[in-house]
Amino acid sequence: MSAHTESHKYQQQRLQAIRSAAAVFAEKGFHGSSTRDIAEHMGIKQGSLYYYFKSKEEALGEVCLFGIEDYADHMKVIAASDQSFESKLMATITSHLSSYRERNEALKVYNDERLYLPEEKRRNLKVLGSGYRQLLEEIFEEGVRSGALRGSIDCHFAAQAVIGICNAWGDLIVRDPDLDLFDIIQKCTDLLINGFRERRTIERPIDQ
Amino acid sequence: MSAHTESHKYQQQRLQAIRSAAAVFAEKGFHGSSTRDIAEHMGIKQGSLYYYFKSKEEALGEVCLFGIEDYADHMKVIAASDQSFESKLMATITSHLSSYRERNEALKVYNDERLYLPEEKRRNLKVLGSGYRQLLEEIFEEGVRSGALRGSIDCHFAAQAVIGICNAWGDLIVRDPDLDLFDIIQKCTDLLINGFRERRTIERPIDQ
DNA sequence: CTTTTTTTCTATAGACCTATAGAATTCTTC
DNA sequence: GAAGAATTCTATAGGTCTATAGAAAAAAAG
After folding, report:
1. One digit per residue, pLDDT tens: chain A, 208 residues?
2. In whole angstroms, how far apart are CA B21 and each of A5, B15, B39, B92?
3. Could you tell me which residues come within 8 angstroms of residue A51 by beta carbon, excluding any fewer than 6 positions away?
4. Which nucleotide does the CA of B34 lie closest to, via C1'?
């Protein structure tokens, strides 16, 4: 219970357990999933799961964290860079929608089930999650200052709109994996930039 | 079990039960809520709940239906009217956000928990729910035909965007009941119309 | 006030679920 | 290949949950 938990194989298997939990929680919800379901998904027996998690709640916490960890990191990098408002927005959307494709199960769990975490864990995640919204809001504020957006825009609503559209279109992506991600990213940037100012000029994205 | 189910008081109490179920499901999710929780919320004992529902699942079905019934109706009326594209869009947003305020609990349950319904009930609801998206899509198609939007717009994505933003902003409304609903409706219409075409002219709303 | 009907209650069967303890197995290392 | 460590298994205690049955209480009807 001390040294072995650091072993490479243990960490690898634990990650597998987190992924299984993510898949099951995403499909049936936290309370709708049993530890047996999760164990079955990764091919072990119910009791064995407790070798990796000390409780079902801990599993939920790990899934949520997995869902947003490098997501929030990305955002910090983007916000700190010195690109134009439009590039930053597009980079944000790219990051958001890409995460949606790769980690959609864990992200869905984070979005839908995190409120079932104990208060303390939830606060820890909130630092990451609302850091995300916060940074997004700041990007919009900068857009207003720089004149890229008209002045009357409410940045709090704008940030929320980005999240809403990305989640909604993220669902479309998950449902139909053949969709062209980049095309959607452009549509989305387009919509938001057009939506918040009168005219727009097209701008190159940074990556992906 | 035959005539009394038609009595006035019975129907009234049953509606109360549906509202209680909505509140509890909205807070804790379907699987996270027990029949005891629901009964307690309406001030009766757990077993008595089965006088109004034959199962917990039936309660969920009723809550979901309650959440979207007149919502889908509204949409039909709007789509069938012969207002301009912009008016129709604004009316849709008005209806969506107003429902969010009044019936947000049941609507949240419809959005988040309907997948736990048995296949058959879910299909029945889907007729209503995706009828909604369908009509919304048609409104956009008409907007394109009429020249109010530029031609390249993908109406399927547009409809999804409306839903995404309304849900996201609906959450803001629920969280802060002091917000000015009409102001938000305007912001939202603004964003969407600007988002999907190059320039916009401001237009009067129809009601509310 | 008595009878009938409607509504609520109590009590419980039967199922399932989490978490733990200790045995069995597999993997490492010497 | 024997000793020790890591991983998985079986079995189960103790709890909660849904749904039902039948008694009790409240309301309506006669």
Report:
1. 334 556 777 889 999 999 999 999 999 999 999 999 999 999 999 999 999 999 999 999 999 999 888 788 888 899 999 999 989 999 999 998 988 887 789 999 998 899 999 998 999 898 887 888 888 999 999 988 888 887 677 899 999 999 999 989 998 998 898 999 988 998 898 888 888 765 333 333 344 3
2. 44, 10, 8, 27
3. none
4. D17
To 10 degrees, the CA torsion angle through A123, A129, A132, A134? -40
Å between B110 CA and D26 C1'? Answer: 36
Alpha-carbon span A86 to A34, nearest angstrom: 45
**Which of B154, B191, B198 is opposite residue A187, by nearest beta carbon?**
B154
**Spatial CB neighbours of A167, under 8 Å, sequence gap ≥ 6:** A100, A111, B164, B168
Q: Is A126 exposed, middle or buried (0-12, 13-18, 19+ CB in 10 A)?
A: exposed
DSSP letter (8 states) at residue A7:
S
Alpha-carbon distance of B21 to B109, in angstroms, equals 10
Tokens of A197: 């100012």
Report CA-CA distances (Å) from B123 to B15, B106, B117, B120.
Answer: 23, 18, 9, 5
Contact between residue B38 and residue A122 where contact means Cβ atoms under 8 Å apart: no
- Residue B47 beta carbon within 7 A of nucleic strand D: yes
Minimum CA–C1' distance nucleotide for B31:
D17
Domains, in order of start, for chain B: 63-195 (1.10.357.10)
The whole-angstrom distance between residue B27's C-alpha and the CA centroid of its chain comes to: 17
